[in-house]
């Protein structure tokens, strides 16, 4: 029997320990935290149906980066958080090695998640699928499967979709690594969240004159702030400088103008 087939029983056992964890004097009272295991990458932050929803990367089975699921909290005031049932778990072939980071959107009144399905091969290779899931009436989520395969010209390190709606189209930025092991941010558009068209690279090594930009850019976010567009991402592999880039996974930002007609970011 595979772990995928045993996830419901595994999760039931994990959640049976929730009252004990919440009563522990060392359990955080202010900051949201899982009841067990490892968490990272809060994502999918959204206001929906009268509550804030915050999802997060979670391995409930240990303090390592295997078995990445999507945990789920909700709140009415951003102070008091409620544990919700787990949103996603790696129980399909296209996400068997982890449901990686992504985003949440309101698609005509349906809370919809877009995430990266991570698949690793025995020879050390890997691939990635960008996938959708929608919330059921009972608060659980139903997976709709992959909507975007690995783009040509890139390694299996393509992940962390951030999606937003603008003027009749959905836009998606993805962190990526090309086959020369250079970090990039890719842009896609869609009318329905299911069929995506590539708009190319909008940031990273070799774009807008940038060089030495690391070997992978993770978790991109593009938004407008006071008339200026801001791109946030987490580049990996930046060369150390005397007072910068001494941590292995820094986060950074750059500001500019995003042209929706081209589209391009400069």
Automatic annotation (TrEMBL):
Compartment(s): Cytoplasm
InterPro entries: GH32_Enzymes (IPR051214), Glyco_hydro_32 (IPR001362), Glyco_hydro_32_AS (IPR018053), Glyco_hydro_32_N (IPR013148), Glyco_hydro_beta-prop_sf (IPR023296), Suc6P_hydrolase (IPR006232)
Biological pathway: Glycan biosynthesis; sucrose metabolism
GO molecular function term, any single one: beta-fructofuranosidase activity
GO cellular component terms given for this protein: cytoplasm
Residue ranges of domain Glycosyl hydrolase family 32 N-terminal in the record: 31-265
CDD domains, alphabetized: GH32_ScrB-like
Annotated protein name in UniProt: Sucrose-6-phosphate hydrolase
Species annotation: Enterobacter hormaechei
